[in-house]
C-alpha cells in the first residue's frame, strides 16, 4: 500500500520537476529573451497576487532589454510575446495581418452568446462577415446623419448635468459619462429614447453597465476564460451575466417585431443588422443581439473612461482647458451657437486634446494570436530567427501603453501636451495605438471622437472642470482594474464660467 503511495508521490514529483524545467527553458529553447519568472505564475500571474498594476508589469517587460525586438513571458502557464520593435509591430498588425488576425478569447457560444458571437471576439470568416455588416454604420455619411441624434442627447444631458451637479463639491464622472454614453447607444444603436440622468434606475442603463462596469466580476470572468477556458466552460462562467443577455435578446426581439409590424425601419445600427439578416445572412436572434451588444462591449466602458480621463486632465491642466475653451467659443461664434457637423469638425485643438488624453491613458495592449506559421526575426543581434507555429499557442501582447509613454517617441511623455498632435510631432502611426492599428483596429474611433466632442463642447461652453477634494492627485491607477482607471475613482468639480467671450 505504502509502496504505491511512494511511487505515486515520486511520479508526481518527477512530473512537477519536468513541468517546471519546461516552463523555465521554453523561451530559452526558442531563443527569446525574457525575465526570470515564478513557475506556473509567470510575470503577469504573479502581479495578480502582488497587486502590481498591469501597465507597470507591461512597462517592465517593455524595458527589460532595449536591444531586443521582442521578449517572452508567461501569464500563468500561457506563453506570451511582447514585441518592442516598431517594424515588427507593424508587420504583426498590418503587413502580415493574415497570420495574426485572431483574438485570444475562447468563449462558448451556447453559454455566452452575446460575448462569443460579437465582432470583437469572433475570428476568421465570422469576423469578416460581422465587420462588413457593421462598417456602414461608421461611414462619414452615417456620422453626419447621426450627428443630430447625438446632439439631442448631449443637449438634454448637459442641461440636467449642469443644473443638478454644478453646486456639488465632488462629482463621480465615471457614473455621469457612462450614463451619457448609454443614452447615445440607446438612440443611435437601438432607436430608443433613454434619459439616464433623470431616470437613473432605468433597465437599459442597469443591464448595459452590468457586464462592463462590475470590475470584480469582469476580472474573475476574464481570468478564467483567458487562463483556464475549460474550467470556465465547465462552471458556465459568462462574461455577460445571464439576466443581462436575456434582457437584451428580449428587447431586440420586441423592437424587431414592432418595426416589422408597423413597417417602420429606423436609421440606426440595429436596422443594419435586421437588414443583413433579411438579405440572406444566416443569423439568428443571438447573432443580431451580439452585434448590437458590441456598442456596450466596445463603447460604454472604453468611451466613458476616456471621457473621464479627458475631464481629469483638463481639470489638472487649466492652461490647456482655457485654450480649448477659446477654440470652442470661436467656433460657436462662427456658427451662431449651432453645434453642427462643420462646427465640431473644425476644432483641431480639441482633436489634439482628445488624442493626447488617449495617448496617456490607453487600453494597455493589443492582443493577437498566430494562426499561421510565421518567422519572427532574431530577438537579439546574433541570435536566430524564431518560427512561431499555431500549436505554440503564443499570445502576442502589443504594448500600446509603454510605447505611448516612451521618451524615444514622445518628448516629456508624462506631460499632458496636446500641442504634440497639432504640430504633427508624432513620428509614425505605429506609436499612436490608442484605437489600434490595421484591419482589426477599432471601427468606432470616429464615433467615439464625435460623441465626446459634442458633449464636451456643450459642457465647456458653460463650465470648466476643476479638481475636487477627492480628485486623484497625483494621478495613480486603480490596481483592481487592468484598464487604466483613477485610484479612488474619477472625481471632478464643475465651475460655471463667469462669461463666454
Automatic annotation (TrEMBL):
Gene3D superfamilies tied to this protein: Cytochrome P450
Claim: Chaperone is one of the keywords in the record: no
Keywords: Endoplasmic reticulum, Heme, Iron, Membrane, Metal-binding, Microsome, Monooxygenase, Oxidoreductase
GO cellular component terms listed in the entry, alphabetical order: endoplasmic reticulum membrane
Membrane topology term: Peripheral membrane protein
GO molecular function: metal ion binding; monooxygenase activity
Cofactor: heme
PROSITE patterns linked: CYTOCHROME_P450
Annotated positions binding heme: 442
Name by which UniProt lists this protein: Cytochrome P450
Organism (species): Trichogramma kaykai
Amino acid at each position: 500500500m505504502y509502496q504505491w503511495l511512494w511511487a505515486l508521490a515520486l511520479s508526481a514529483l518527477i512530473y512537477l520537476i519536468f513541468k517546471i524545467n519546461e516552463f523555465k527553458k521554453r523561451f530559452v529553447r526558442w531563443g527569446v529573451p525574457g525575465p526570470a519568472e515564478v513557475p506556473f505564475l509567470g510575470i503577469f500571474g504573479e502581479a495578480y497576487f502582488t497587486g502590481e498594476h498591469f501597465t507597470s508589469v507591461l512597462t517592465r517587460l517593455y524595458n527589460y532589454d532595449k536591444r531586443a525586438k521582442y521578449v517572452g513571458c508567461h501569464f500563468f502557464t500561457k506563453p506570451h510575446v511582447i514585441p518592442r520593435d516598431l517594424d515588427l509591430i507593424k508587420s504583426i498588425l498590418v503587413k502580415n495581418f493574415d497570420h495574426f488576425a485572431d483574438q485570444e478569447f475562447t468563449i462558448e457560444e451556447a453559454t455566452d452568446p452575446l460575448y462569443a458571437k460579437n465582432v470583437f471576439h469572433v475570428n476568421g470568416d465570422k469576423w469578416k462577415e460581422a465587420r462588413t455588416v457593421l462598417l456602414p454604420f461608421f461611414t462619414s455619411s452615417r456620422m453626419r446623419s447621426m450627428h443630430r441624434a447625438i446632439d439631442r442627447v448631449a443637449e438634454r444631458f448637459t442641461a440636467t448635468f449642469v443644473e443638478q451637479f454644478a453646486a456639488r463639491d465632488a462629482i463621480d464622472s465615471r457614473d455621469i459619462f457612462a450614463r451619457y454614453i448609454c443614452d447615445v447607444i440607446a438612440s443611435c444603436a437601438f432607436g430608443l429614447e433613454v434619459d439616464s440622468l433623470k431616470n437613473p434606475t432605468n433597465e437599459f442603463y442597469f443591464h448595459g453597465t452590468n457586464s462592463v462596469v462590475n470590475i470584480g466580476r469582469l476580472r474573475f470572468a476574464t481570468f478564467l476564460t483567458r487562463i483556464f477556458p475549460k474550467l470556465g466552460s465547465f462552471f458556465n462562467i459568462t462574461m455577460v451575466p445571464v439576466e443581462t443577455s436575456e434582457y437584451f435578446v428580449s428587447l431586440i426581439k420586441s423592437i424587431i417585431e414592432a418595426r416589422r409590424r408597423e413597417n417602420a425601419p429606423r436609421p440606426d445600427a440595429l436596422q443594419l443588422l435586421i437588414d443583413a439578416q433579411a438579405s440572406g445572412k444566416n443569423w439568428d436572434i443571438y447573432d443580431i443581439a451580439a452585434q448590437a451588444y458590441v456598442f456596450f462591449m466596445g463603447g460604454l466602458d472604453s468611451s466613458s473612461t476616456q471621457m473621464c480621463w479627458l475631464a481629469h486632465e483638463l481639470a489638472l491642466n487649466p492652461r490647456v482647458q482655457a485654450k480649448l475653451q477659446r477654440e470652442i467659443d470661436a467656433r460657436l461664434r462662427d456658427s451662431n451657437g449651432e453645434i453642427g457637423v462643420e462646427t465640431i469638425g473644425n476644432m483641431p485643438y480639441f482633436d489634439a486634446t482628445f488624442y493626447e488624453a488617449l495617448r496617456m491613458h490607453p487600453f494597455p495592449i493589443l492582443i493577437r494570436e498566430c494562426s499561421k506559421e510565421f518567422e519572427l526575426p532574431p530577438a537579439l543581434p546574433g541570435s536566430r530567427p524564431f518560427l512561431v507555429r499555431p500549436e505554440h499557442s503564443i499570445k502576442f501582447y502589443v504594448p500600446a501603453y509603454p510605447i505611448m509613454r516612451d521618451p524615444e517617441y514622445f518628448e516629456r511623455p508624462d506631460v499632458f501636451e496636446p500641442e504634440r498632435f497639432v504640430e504633427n510631432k508624432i513620428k509614425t502611426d505605429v506609436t499612436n495605438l490608442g484605437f489600434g492599428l490595421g484591419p482589426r483596429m477599432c471601427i468606432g474611433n470616429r464615433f467615439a471622437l464625435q460623441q465626446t466632442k459634442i458633449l464636451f463642447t456643450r459642457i465647456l461652453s458653460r463650465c470648466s472642470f476643476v479638481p475636487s477634494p477627492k480628485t486623484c492627485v497625483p494621478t495613480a491607477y486603480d490596481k483592481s482594474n487592468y484598464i487604466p482607471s483613477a485610484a479612488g475613482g474619477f472625481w471632478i468639480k464643475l465651475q460655471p464660467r463667469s462669461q463666454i467671450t
